[in-house]
Structures are given as structure tokens and as C-alpha cells.
Amino acid sequence: MGQTIAEKIFAAHLRDKPTEDNMILDLDVVMCHEITTPIAIMDLVEKDMDRVFDCTKIKAVIDHVTPAKDSKTAAQGKIMRDWAKRHQIRDFFDIGENGVCHALFPEKGFVRPGYTVIMGDSHTCTHGAFGAFAAGVGTTDLEVGIYKGVCSFRTPKTIRIDITGTLQHRVTAKDVILAIIKKISVNGATDKVIEFVGPVVEAFSMSARMTLCNMAVEAGATCGICMPDRVTAEYLWPFIEKEYSSIDGAVEEYRKWHSDADAEYAEQLSFNVSALVPQVTFAFKPDQVKDISEMAGTPVDQIYIGSCTNGRIEDLRDAVEILKGRKLAAGVRGIVTPATPLIYSMALDEGIIKVFMDAGFCVLNPTCGACLGMSAGVLATGEVCASTTNRNFNGRMGKGGVVHLMSPFSAAAAAVTGVITDPRDFKI
Amino acid sequence: MKAFGGPAILLDRNDINTDEIIPAKYLTEITKLALKPHVLEDLLLDGKPFAPPLQVMQQARVVVTRANFGCGSSREHAVWVFEVNDINVIIAESFARIFRQNMFNCGILAVELGKDQIESLFTMRGNISIKVDLDFDQITASSDDRDQDDFICAFHLNSFDKELVSAGGWLTYADGKY
Ligand code: SF4
């Protein structure tokens, strides 16, 4: 019997198997941010266990609330800073160099095909775009990861989703994943890995694959995963060029991780995107999704473009395609947060920042900010936000606020009209 | 091993998420106790805010709910906020992976029952109290309504999860072993 990519990665990292259903894995990367890590650090200190298993395998960032907004968030940052210094964690990104974890760490080349990755953050599944097994964990798992370099998982079961067809103009990876979550529900992939395969995924850039994998957890999945291929190798090339004689060599080597043709799946689905139109969420669950025409005309108060889902340069390019030469509708607030300093600086060079500013947007530094309603764009009760983020939970961006998830194209279209609007209606 | 069980509160909804259990704005707290008053603060049941009498929340030791409980964020705060409110068992049709793992990692119980068994708990009359027997993997739900019979059913706990609970959590277990 063949193996899935997740089974291959598990086998290659197996430390212990306490039961048929539980596997303890060695970790290649433990990622840390300032919301869930300080409490783990403090607990380790208190228990006299303040060690790190390997300082080169720990990657840390202050990203959720940065710059600090109050004394409590300042204290969280300080705990991270002191800890990184104490343990010589070189890959620690503080203000000026920091950005949203799931955009920043891939950009630094920290994730490779076949890796095991954990972080105290549910959207860690984003890194599966590189053909890695990457899972969000709680603070206790994070603590053990930091201290011992291991984590326990249930023996993986995989859902394979074959994405076929041709995407229409201005229909993106975000629309694809929203439609998939609608189809399988917020509980449809609980405790399973989702393999995204097929011609549409193969044609996707790493950025689009990250958008796809990012929202796997919204269907309950442990990890979303794409087969590592030429696109992956080209993205990683600056970081791996010393390890391989050529990109072809890397592509060949990565093939060993691909799921076997006779691998066993919990479920296999096929999804044709040719008729797919832009998607948008309503209400408070990410599987409450409609075609944008059904929601068209819904007034919005704020536009938020950013986050680990859609804050990369490709996303900003999409948004300015519509915003160029246009302005925010009267009474609508626009906020854009390039996800990393590199993205910010590329956006400056390409004139993207200017387009946003001319349209009347507030341009923020890289941070999670409004995405989780902690800072930089919190909604008031009754306010509505058109957002490129990944969660529309009740209260997510501020108590009593409503969030409609959509693509950067759709968010830009709403920015211009002040109501939910089909982005395909705009000519360049 | 500590005792599990006690008076139950019933949350009749699927897909209750971590942001409803503890909103993100409290994630800057650095003690578990500070979370206590905010348990289930943003929860909507039937579209209305969940606001049980204070005494009911204070007495509760068990939560009974439906499918996919604890979906969303990885925040262990969503488990701690129950822990500091003395909830030591959550019984559901199913749990989100990270939430469930966090429960056992903290040495507290996530019990999965079939849809019909959960339905039986929801249809019991009166205020119910639940006893968990870990030697026989059995729960007994009894009501303060004398006309209501007890409901008894078995559950399955994987031996690794059981070891985590007896060790008092994953950190102690892993420290001794790896
Ligand atoms: S951008 Fe939003 S979803 Fe992504 S890591 Fe930050 S808070 Fe989480």
C-alpha cells in the first residue's frame, strides 16, 4: 500500500508510537509569536525547565500587536525579546524587521518540503503550501516543542481534493478555498490533512497556495498540503542553491515526498472551478458562503486588506488593479497592512502604496492588527467590514462587528462602491 | 487521579468556536485567573447572548455540547478559561483537534459521545449532574427531577489520552519520557 505525503513525513520523523493512533514526531521548526509564547516561556521558567531544544530550529516574531499598544502587549514583547537573547535565538524578528508570521517565515526560507512544523497559532497550516506538515498547537504543545523538540499527533488521515478547470478573471485562490469550505463545512476535515492537488493548484503561485492552505483549518483540518514541485523549488531557490546543483535537481528530490498513486485516503473529492464566481461569507462561520451576487449591495463601513491569508504582494497588486485612479466611497474607511517589510518595500517600489494612499487608505506597518480585533482597526458594535482575512467569527474584529471574508479584488471593489460588489464589474 | 464530574451546563449548538469561548482581547492576560469572568463571553445561542445566572456557572463542573466544539484558534486560553471556572469535563459529539489536544495536554477530560447519546442528555428533564467513572469508562447523568431516570452510557478513551490525564498533562509526560 502506498503512502500519502503526510504519512511519509510522519514516518520520517517518528520518535515514538504510544498507540496505533498516536505518533510522537521530531520537529524541524518551532515557530513562536508573542501572543501564545510568553505564557509558555513563563511556565517553563517557573518549572525550572527554561531551555530550548535547538536554538537554530526556533523562529520567533512579534507580529500580532506591533508596535505594542499598551503595557500588557509591551510586556509580552519584552518576554519574547529577553528569551530570544537568553537562548541565542538568531531568527527573532522584532520591530522594523517583523511581519505576520505565516508570511514572514516562508519569505525567509524557513520551511522546506518534508518538514514538520508547529506553532502556537491555528493558521500554521499555511506552511503546508511547501509540502511540509505544519500544524497549529496550543501552549502546552508549544512548550514541549520548545523544550524537547517533539509533538504528538494522531496518525494522519487525509482528504484529497482535486481542483480542476479554469478560473475566471478575478476569481482567486481565496474564492476557491471559501467555496471548498462551504462544500465540506467547518467540521468537514476535522483531525484530517487536506491534500490540494490537480492542475489548478499546480498552476498556482506559492502565494496562492499559501492562501489555499491558510484556510484549511477553517474546515477543521490539521494541515493543508500541496505537493512540492518546480514552483516550490523556484520560490526556495535562493535558500537552497548550495544544496542542489540545479532547480531540476531539487524538483527531482522533492518528488520523493509526493503521495503515492495507490495511497489510501479518508475521502477523495473533485472540485471544478470553471463556473466559480467570487465568493463572500455571511454570518459568523467560514462555511456560510455565498456567490457575491447574492450579497451585492450590502453596505460596509471598513475595508481591511492584509493578514496571513491575503497580505502578500500579489494580493496588493490585485487590489490596486481596481483601486487605481479610484477613491474610497464616501464614509468608508480603508486599511491596508502589507504582511511583511519586504512586501511593504516592494509595494513602495511598484507604486502600490501610492495607489492605496491616493484612494484614501490608511497604510499600516506589517502586523496582524485588526484581523483578530486586538489593535489597528477594531470594529464598533454594528459596524461591517469587508476583509481579506480568514475568520468571520462573532466578535472577531471587535465585539458586535460583522466581518465578510472575500478576496482582495472583492475587497477593493467594495472599497470603491461602499457596498459588497462583484469585482468583475470593474474595467481597468 | 482527580475526580471528574459534577453539575452540568448545556450548550445547545454545533461549532462553538474559541473566540466565543474567550475573545482575543483577553489574550494579553498573563495569568489564567484573569480569564475567569470572561468565559463564553461572546457566545450566541439561538442568535442571543448566552448569559446564565452567575450561580449556575459557579456550580458547573461539566459542559455538554454538540459537534465540533472549540473550533477556530489554537489558543489554550479557551481550555484554561474552563479550568479556572472549575470545569473538568467537556462532553461533546466531537471536538476541534487543537482544542481537544489542549484539554488532554492540561490533564482534563474531553469525552466524545454519539449523536444519539448527546441528544439523550439534551432531552433529560431538570438540572443534570454527571459522574465520570474512568475505571469503567462510563458516565452517569442524573437529574434533580425525580421522575427522570438516570442516563448511563459508556465512552471510549484512547490509552495515550488516559495516560496524559493520569500524568497531569503532556509536559510532565514528555519530560519523563523524551
Ligand atoms: S493575520 Fe490574523 S489569522 Fe493570520 S496569524 Fe495574524 S491574527 Fe492570525
Word description of this protein:
The complex is a heterodimer of chains A (428) and B (178). In chain A, α2 (37-46) crosses α5 and α13 packs parallel to α16 (408-417). Among the domains of chain A are: 5-154, Aconitase, domain 3 (2-Layer Sandwich), CATH 3.30.499; 280-425, Aconitase, domain 3. Chain A is built from 16 helices and 19 strands. By secondary structure, chain A is α/β, with parallel strands linked by helices. A 5-stranded parallel β-sheet of chain A has the order 5-4-3-6-7. Helices cover 33% and strands 19% of the residues of chain A. Chain B is an alpha/beta fold and 178 residues long. Chain B has a single domain, classed as Alpha-Beta Barrel (Aconitase, domain 4). Chain B has 7 helices and 9 strands. Chain B has helices at 18-21, 54-59, 77-83, 97-105, 115-123, 159-167, 170-177; strands at 5-11, 44-45, 48-49, 62-65, 89-92, 109-112, 128-133, 138-143, 151-154. A 7-stranded mixed β-sheet of chain B has the order 6-5-4-1-7-8-9. Chain B is globular. Bound molecules: iron/sulfur cluster. Iron/sulfur cluster is lined by residues 64, 100-102, 121, 123, 307-308, 368, 371-372, 389-390 of chain A.
Major beta sheet of chain A, specifics?
5 strands, parallel
Q: What does the main sheet of chain B amount to?
A: 7 strands, mixed
- The ordered string of helix (H) and strand (E) elements of chain B is EHEEHEHEHEHEEEHH
Mean pLDDT of chain A: 95
Spatial gap, N to C terminus of chain B: 23 Å
Q: Low-confidence parts of chain B, pLDDT < 50 over ≥5 residues?
A: none
The CATH homologous superfamily name of the domain at 5-154 in chain A equals Aconitase, domain 3
In CATH, the homologous superfamily of chain B goes by the name: Aconitase, domain 4
CATH structural fold name of the domain at 5-154 in chain A: Aconitase, domain 3
Task: Note the total helix count of chain A.
Answer: 16
Task: Output mean pLDDT of chain B.
Answer: 91
Q: What's the number of helices of chain B?
A: 7
Using the coordinates above, name the CATH class of chain B: Alpha Beta
What's the number of domains of chain B?
1
CA-to-CA gap between the ends of chain A? Answer: 52 Å
Q: Overall 3D geometry of chain B?
A: globular
Cα radius of gyration of chain B in angstroms: 16 Å
